[in-house]
Amino acid sequence: MDSIKVAGEFPRWEPIDDYTYRIIFPTVTARWQMIAGVGPLPKHIWEPVIKKDGLEAVYSFYGVDTDVKKIVGSGPFTIAEYVPSQKVVLKRNPYYYRKDVKESPRREWEKAVDAAWDEANLTTDEEQRKRGFEKFQRIWIEKVPWVYFYNRATIHAYKTRFGNTKPQPVSDYSFMGTLPYMFVKD
Predict the structure, then answer these.
(1) E strand or H helix at 24, and its extent?
(2) Which burial class, exposed, middle or buried, applies to 76 when counting CB atoms under 10 A from its CB (0-12, 13-18, 19+)?
(3) Which of 59, 88, 139, 178 has its CA 20 to 30 A from that of 23?
């Protein structure tokens, strides 16, 4: 928690409306992007924990034994099931606020993505599930307008190179979609 303090104080968070808030820092800081990247936390969960055990309780609140259905998510999906080293099943977050107007061109691909997602998640047959996820990935890669795949940049550090030093992009989306299935799980 100390990483979000500025000049020894926490920034103040003020709600503007149901979906917007303002962050007020005690002084000018260069770390505002890192601090502002921290999402809002659910008050109904964290306030009783902090009042009871103090701010240090935040570090140990979630553990490996936490029921994943009790973890609050602010994105479009929440965790429905987690099996270590095997799978994570996501479900739509009913409280996710982002919606488009009916005339938006996003609606067409959004329906295709939703249908593929449901096809993949609403079955217990593993083969059908795999086909559903392949279809979901293909639609996501081919139809979603703002998803672009770039080669990772090469980062040069002291006597070390990270990333893709010799990029050879794979343009066959069918091949890219099969990559997760090339690894054998016990």
Answers:
(1) strand 21-24
(2) exposed
(3) 59
Residues making up the chain, counted from first to last: 186
Residue 47: name the closest of 21, 22, 72, 64 by CA: 72
Instruction: Name the residue ranges covered by the structural domains of the chain.
Output: 2-61, 99-182
pLDDT, greater one: 171 or 69: 69
- Residue 156 clears pLDDT 60, i.e. is over it: no
SS3 per-residue string spanning 34-77:
HHHCCCCCCHHHHHHHHHHHCCCHHHHHCCCCCCHHHCCCCCCE
Q: Average pLDDT in the 22-30 region? A: 80
Q: Which of 110, 91, 90, 109 is nearest to 99 (CA)?
A: 110
* Closest C-alpha among 109, 112, 74 to residue 93: 74
* pTM of the entire predicted model: 0.39
Which DSSP string corresponds to 108-123? HHHHHHHHHHHHHHS-
